[in-house]
Design goal:
The chain is of the alpha+beta class and 87 residues long. It contains 2 helices and 4 strands. Helix content is 33%, strand content 37%. Strands 2-3-1-4 form a 4-stranded antiparallel beta sheet, covered by helices on one side. Strand 2 and strand 3 form a beta hairpin. Helix 1 packs antiparallel against helix 2. This is Thiamine-binding protein domain-containing protein.
């Protein structure tokens, strides 16, 4: 099974307070069955097995757009093959 890395941001930005769509996106990624999750104010990344990443991306898009995001930028990269016992 392939391992994937997703990098994403949601807009519009608000430097004073995290907008609802950014909070929702962060919650989706942190709750997903992923590893190597890194969330920050200007970008977020996560890695995991292909099925887990693609499921998380689907939820991320649906929920963040539903919470007011006007743009979601994302990039998905194949980073290798998952070994036995990895997600």
């Amino acid at each position: 099974m392939q391992r994937l890395r997703v990098e994403f941001t949601t807009e519009p930005f608000d430097l004073d307070e995290a907008p609802a769509h950014a909070v929702v996106a962060r919650e989706v990624i942190q709750a997903a069955d992923l590893d190597a999750v890194d969330v920050g104010p200007f970008g977020n990344t996560a890695e995991g097995g292909a099925d887990a990443v693609l499921t998380a991306v689907d939820a991320l898009l649906r929920r963040s757009l539903g919470a007011g995001a006007t743009r979601v930028s994302l990039q998905v990269n194949v980073i290798g093959e998952a070994g036995e016992g990895e997600k």
